[in-house]
Structure formats: structure tokens, C-alpha cells
Design goal:
Elements lengths: L1 H4 L12 H8 L8 H9 L3 H11 L1 H5 L5 H29 L5 H6 L2 H9 L7 E2 L2 H14 L6 E4 L4 E4 L1 H28 L11 H18 L1 H5 L11 H12 L5 H23 L10 H16 L1 H4 L20 H4 L3 H26 L5 H17 L6 E2 L1 H9 L6 H17 L8 H11 L1 H4 L4 H8 L1 H39 L3 E7 L5 E3 L6 E2 L4 E6 L8 H12 L3 H54 L37 E5 L8 H16 L3 E5 L3 H7 L5 E2 L3 H7 L1
Parallel strand pairs: 8-9, 9-10, 10-11
Antiparallel strand pairs: 1-4, 2-3, 5-6, 5-7, 5-8
Helix pairs in contact: 6-9, 6-20, 6-21, 6-22, 8-19, 8-21, 9-10, 9-11, 9-18, 10-18, 10-19, 11-25, 14-15, 14-22, 18-19, 18-25, 24-25, 26-28
GO molecular function: secondary active sulfate transmembrane transporter activity
Protein name: Solute carrier family 26 member 6
Subcellular location: Membrane
Length: 714
């Protein structure tokens, strides 16, 4: 068994570094010029025009392949079912947008037809959506607050609300911000900016929609209790609204409260019956439609508005609105809100669209979806609609009732058209409390998302922190500012994770060729005289210093201390050499003086002897010259730096997790090689990506191979 686990490696070539590989493989550095790229992108041909047409107008591609036999019945049933859902949801979500209910029906008609032509998802149901509606409501009530439309009534000597002027102004604001968000979506789609949704992680989106649901709940309390709280805007407005609602609770309209409670209980009970009978019923029971029909009949029969003060929907004009260009003066005030609407609406739609595409095996074009939603909002803004996205509840109904294509959405739009032309005025006596109850019951699924906290606690706590932070930021700063703050926080968590990666020393798992961190695996043993160091994140300016510190800490080599000691020894050696040289120079001078004196004495003696005995011969013996003292040359000190015997002979830096290097990262690697090389430890880089090699420009000694291959080749 032990033999089977062992894998032998035999490299039948010399070990090559990256420079050798590039020379052997004749790497090409040829790059396509920018002018050539532009020329290629502008090149036109028949097949390319056809592909562009089919991608820009997807209905041309799939409608000609539409199967009446297989898909028509399912799309018909699905379209009627979703159209019935559009009626109560459109009217209810119009209250969230702070516009008259009929404009919710307009928003359930025009945008759907546009998406039918340009959309690529077959199953999502676009139209009014709670999160988008509450964001629109925040804009309309901020720019056109109730306080701007109070007029003095001379009869009652009190201030009364000019609701007609207020609603007219808010409709213009909602249409303007919707039109601008659509323009932004189209522009982003044309520049292939669909990838922006990648910055909206699933925890962020779910936390954001949960927070938006809380905003929706608070905004509908006035209709649920029949009170008129003050409108607040800006940060912490939600908290101020809750405090004001609590203050006004003693003034609750009892009739409105009874209608709200009865409707809520009835809807919850009916939905439970729906879920129990889901397998037996061909289509779900339209409980919301039944609720508004029954409530309208009861309100009309018992005059709930006049006798009990229950607020009703009011006049609903028949027919369609003519197109109207938004006021330019409003556009400048809502740019930030429009961008937030564009991103949120697209993020929700593409997320749900990809779920259905994965389930049924087709492709959703993210950039085309951005353009389709943008055109839907742009056209909708011209017809006084407010911003739309896709609804999960309607999309699930569209799928479960047999919907196969966007023909189902077109049929649902036709249902709304009939309601607008013929039936809409019948719902003038519908209590707004019923619409608030419908909203509350539909938010049941979003409130279930609180269970994500428990799941994320077990799986990924960083994602849990993102979820909770998104919820808190959105609740405190409203949906528009909360989205920006949440995205910034989410990006910061990514930065923090790269700043605090896992550093480890790898060891060989006994009996295998597998290498694992020695601090986590008991059977992973460090190879003698060798350190294999790996970081779980890339190497760049934010963590470069920590990378070097972690290498020192994990390897147990205090490189700073060792280099300091070595430099002190080198300095001490240099001082000794200077001292010895100075001493030798001094001795040489002293010896030279002595030699000069001796020569002078000998010359003087010879002169005196010559004068005394001029005719005498020279002595039989020669005077021996005294040997000059031995002068030493410059002293050399055999004081080479002695390295610690515990130091490894090599350190391998496994860079396989590193996908890019900046200048700071390159400098850090060079400094590591230089510093450890000074103390006799060879540093080898392994597992380098080509991008890293191009960034470092130091290919000699860089091995583009896995750690195990590098070890087997040594």
C-alpha cells in the first residue's frame, strides 16, 4: 500500500529557468497595435451585421422558431396568471413610489412590451418591484415633500393638502428619474459594462433587499394604521419615521386598522392554502385579485371612506397617457438616484435571469439585458412610468404555470391594457389599507432572508459581516446612499482579506508527493535544510511588507537581526584592518628613521677612519650591514561572517496564488533575494505566472513550475 502511494519523478532534461524556457520555445512578444484593433472592430460584413442585429433585437432570433404546439398554451395560461398579479402589485407598489395607483398599472404595461422585444431571459417577469418602488418614493418625497403643497383654507382656517398638484409633481419626478436611469443603463450596456454586477455579491444583494423590505414596511405603516406621519429625508430618516409613527399610534383610524388586519390574515391564510394545494391546482389561486375585488365591493357597499374615514384609491382615469419628455431641470437633481436605480434594477434582474438560464440551459447576455432594461425604463419614463425590474414572485408564477418565452409577458401586458381601458375605474373605492396589506404579505419571502445570518455564520463569516453591514447601512442611510456605502464596505473586505492572508510553511505529506501546511497537517513534514513558503493572496503594495515579515516569522530567521550582526562584524573587521594598517605604517616610518640614523653613523665612522689612517688598507673583513627590521605589509583579518548552522540552505517562495505584481511587490521579492543571499540562503521563486515574470523582468532563477516539480528536480 505504501508503494502504491509513492509517485516517482524522473526529469530527463536539465532544469531550466524561465529565461531558458522562453529562448527554447521562442516566445513571441508581438502585440496587435491599437489601430489594428480599432480597424477590426469597425470592419463591416454581411454575417457580422446579421449577428449584431440578432444580438441587439433578440426577438428576431427566437420568435421565428416559436413552437405554437409546444409553447402557446403554457404561455397563454402563464400570461393571464401573471397579468392578474400585475393588477394588485402595480397599484400597491405605486403607493411605495408615492404616486397615484394607476401609474403602477402604466409601469406594468409599457416596459413589459419593450423588454419583450429586447430582453434575452425567457422566464423573468419585469414590471413593478418593491425595492425599486421604495427607492423612487424616496426621491419623489425628498424633492416634492408634503410641506410644499399646503394651502390655506379660508373656510376652515386650516392648512389643507393640495393632493392634485402634489401627485402631478411627483409623477413628473418619478418619470424623470426613471428616464435618466434608463439612459444610463443603455449607455452602460453599449460600453459593455455588464460586469458591474459582479460588485454586487449575493450576500450584499440579499442584505440590501432585506433592508429595502424594512424601508417598505415602515413606509406603509401610515396606510396600515390610517395616520399621517411627517416625512423625513436624509440619513436616519427611517428611525425618525418610526419614532413619529409610535407617537401617532393613539390617533390610529380604527376602521383602517380593521381593514388592514382582516386583509393581512385573509391573504396569509389563502396563500397557505395555495401552497398546500400547489400540486393539485393547475394555476395558483389569484388571492390578491380576489382580495381587492372583495375589498372594493365591501368599501363601495358600506361607504367606508365617508362613514369610517378609510382612505381609498380615488379616481382612476381610463385609457393611456400620451408620451411626455421629462423636464431637464429635474434631471440634474436626480443623477445619483438614477445611477443607483440603474445598478440595483439591473443587478436584481440579471441575478434572477441567470438562475432560470442555468436551470433551463440557455444563455442570458448581461450587456443586452442592461440595454433591454434601459430601453424599458427610457420608454416608460416618457409615458410617466416609474423604474422597473423583475419580481421573483411573478417570475416563479410565470415559470410554474408553464411559461416558456417572453410571449407570456406580452400576454400579461395585454391583460393590463384591458384593465386600463375598461376595468380600472371599478377599483376607485379600493381601500389603500388593502394595498398595504398586499405589500406586507408579499414581503414575507424577503423577511425570511434573515435566516442567511445563521447559514453564513457557519459557512463564511466575512460574508455574514457584509450581509449585516449592508442591512445596517441601508436602514440608516436609505436605499440610495446605503447601496454606495455597502459596495464600498464589500470592496474593503476584499482588500482586508488580501492584507491579512494565510501564510504557511509547506511540508511533504509522508509517503506522497503532496505538500501541505505543516501547522495544519500532522503528517506533513518539512524537508531538511529547505523552507517552502506560501501566501494565500496576491502580493502588492498593501501586503508586501507583511509578506516579508511573515516569511521571517514563519522561517524563524530574524533577517534584520542577522544582517545587523553581520554588518557589525564587517564594520569591526574593517576597523581592525584600518588599525593594523595604521600601526604598520607607523612601524615602517620608525624603521626608516632608524635605518637613516645607522647609515649616517657608519658614514661618519668611515670618514674618521680614512682621515686617521689614509694609507691603511681596508679591513680584512667587511662590515656587515645590519639587517633592517622586517616591515609587515597591510594586515588581513581572517574574520569571515559565520552563519548560523540552523539556517536552511534554500527558501522556495511558492507564488502560484499570486496573479499580479506591482512595483512594490517586485521590489519586495528582490530585497528578499538580496537579504537572504547575504547570509548564504538561496531564495528561489516557484509557480510564477507569466504576468509576474513580465512584471519582474528578472527571469533568471525564476521557475515556472509547481513546488513539487521544483523539489523533484533538485
Amino acid at each position: 500500500m505504501e508503494q502504491k502511494r509513492r509517485v516517482g519523478y524522473a526529469i530527463q532534461r536539465e532544469v531550466l529557468d524561465e529565461q531558458n524556457v522562453e529562448e527554447l520555445a521562442e516566445k513571441s512578444d508581438a502585440k496587435t497595435p491599437l489601430s489594428e484593433k480599432i480597424k477590426k472592430s469597425l470592419r463591416c460584413s454581411g454575417p457580422r451585421v446579421k449577428r449584431s442585429m440578432l444580438s441587439c433585437v433578440p426577438i428576431v432570433s427566437w420568435l421565428r422558431r416559436y413552437s405554437l404546439r409546444d409553447w402557446a398554451i403554457g404561455d397563454l395560461v402563464s400570461g393571464i396568471s401573471v397579468g392578474i398579479m400585475h393588477l394588485p402589485q402595480g397599484m400597491a407598489y405605486a403607493l411605495l413610489a408615492a404616486v397615484p395607483p394607476v401609474f403602477g398599472l402604466y409601469s406594468s404595461f409599457y416596459p413589459i412590451l419593450v423588454y419583450f422585444i429586447f430582453g434575452t431571459s425567457r422566464h423573468i417577469s419585469v414590471g413593478t418591484y418593491a425595492v425599486m418602488s421604495v427607492m423612487i418614493g424616496g426621491v419623489t418625497e425628498r424633492i416634492a415633500p408634503d410641506s410644499n403643497f399646503l394651502i390655506w383654507d379660508n373656510v376652515t382656517n386650516t392648512s389643507v393638502m393640495d393632493t392634485y398638484t402634489r401627485d402631478h409633481e411627483r409623477v413628473k419626478i418619478a418619470a424623470a428619474v426613471t428616464f435618466l436611469s434608463g439612459i444610463l443603463q443603455v449607455l452602460l450596456g453599449m460600453v459593455q459594462f455588464g460586469f458591474v454586477v459582479t460588485y454586487l455579491s449575493e450576500p450584499l444583494v440579499r442584505g440590501y433587499t432585506t433592508a429595502a423590505a424594512i424601508n417598505v414596511i415602515v413606509s406603509q405603516l401610515k396606510y396600515f394604521f390610517g395616520i399621517q406621519p411627517e416625512r423625513f429625508s436624509g440619513p436616519f430618516s427611517l428611525i425618525y419615521t418610526v419614532i413619529d409613527v409610535c407617537y401617532l399610534l393613539p390617533k390610529t383610524n380604527i376602521g383602517t386598522l380593521v381593514v388592514s388586519i382582516v386583509t393581512t390574515v385573509g391573504l396569509i391564510g389563502a396563500k397557505e392554502v395555495n401552497s398546500l394545494l400547489a400540486r393539485k391546482l393547475p394555476v395558483p389561486i389569484p388571492v390578491e385579485l380576489l382580495a381587492i375585488i372583495i375589498a372594493t365591493v365591501i368599501s363601495w357597499q358600506f361607504n367606508l371612506d365617508t362613514k369610517y374615514g378609510v382612505e381609498v384609491v380615488g379616481p382612476i382615469p381610463s385609457g393611456l397617457q400620451p408620451p411626455m419628455v421629462p423636464e431637464v431641470s429635474i434631471l440634474g437633481q436626480v443623477i445619483g438616484d438614477a445611477f443607483a436605480l440603474a445598478i440595483v434594477g439591473y443587478g436584481i434582474a440579471i441575478s434572477l435571469g441567470r438562475i432560470f438560464a442555468l436551470k433551463y440551459g440557455y444563455r442570458v447576455d448581461s450587456n443586452q439585458e442592461l440595454i433591454a432594461l434601459g430601453l424599458s425604463n427610457t420608454v416608460g419614463g416618457l409615458f410617466q412610468c416609474f423604474a422597473i425590474s423583475c419580481s421573483m414572485s411573478r417570475s416563479l408564477v410565470q415559470e410554474s404555470t408553464g411559461g416558456k418565452t417572453q410571449v407570456a409577458s406580452a400576454i400579461s401586458a395585454f391583460v393590463i391594457l384591458i384593465i386600463l381601458l375598461k376595468i380600472g375605474e371599478l377599483f376607485e373605492q379600493l381601500p389603500k389599507a388593502v394595498l398595504a396589506a398586499i405589500i406586507y404579505v408579499n414581503l414575507h419571502g424577503m423577511m425570511k432572508q434573515f435566516s442567511d445570518i445563521r447559514i453564513l455564520w457557519r459557512t463564511n463569516r466575512v460574508d455574514m459581516v457584509v450581509w449585516i453591514a449592508t442591512l445596517i447601512l441601508t436602514v440608516l442611510f436609505n436605499p440610495d446612499m446605503g447601496l454606495a456605502a455597502s459596495i464600498a464596505f464589500s470592496i474593503l473586505t476584499v482588500i482586508f482579506r488580501t492584507q491579512l492572508p494565510q501564510y504557511s510553511i509547506l511540508g511533504q505529506v509522508k509517503g506522497t508527493d503532496i505538500y501541505r501546511p505543516i501547522n495544519k497537517y500532522k503528517q506533513a513534514y518539512q524537508l531538511p535544510g529547505l523552507f517552502i513558503f506560501r501566501s494565500s493572496a496576491t502580493l502588492y503594495f498593501a501586503n508586501a511588507e507583511m509578506y516579508a515579515d511573515a516569511l521571517s516569522a514563519k522561517s524563524g530567521i530574524d533577517i534584520t537581526k542577522i544582517l545587523t550582526r553581520k554588518r557589525k562584524q564587517d564594520l569591526k573587521k574593517l576597523r581592525r584592518e584600518k588599525k593594523e594598517a595604521k600601526k604598520a605604517k607607523k612601524e615602517a616610518k620608525k624603521a626608516a628613521k632608524m635605518e637613516t640614523k645607522m647609515e649616517a653613523k657608519m658614514e661618519a665612522k668611515m670618514d674618521s677612519d680614512t682621515e686617521a689612517e689614509p694609507e691603511t688598507e681596508t679591513d680584512e673583513y667587511e662590515l656587515e650591514e645590519p639587517e633592517p627590521p622586517q616591515i609587515s605589509t597591510v594586515a588581513t583579518v581572517e574574520g569571515n561572517f559565520q552563519t548560523d548552522r540552523a539556517l536552511p540552505h534554500a527558501i522556495i517562495l511558492d507564488l502560484s496564488p499570486v496573479n499580479f505584481l506591482d512595483t512594490v511587490g517586485v521590489k519586495t521579492l528582490r530585497n528578499i533575494q538580496k537579504d537572504y543571499g547575504e547570509i548564504g540562503v538561496e531564495v528561489i521563486l516557484a509557480g510564477c505566472q507569466l504576468e509576474i515574470l513580465d512584471a519582474s523582468k528578472e527571469k533568471r532563477g525564476l521557475f515556472k513550475m509547481s513546488t513539487k516539480h521544483l523539489l523533484s528536480g533538485t
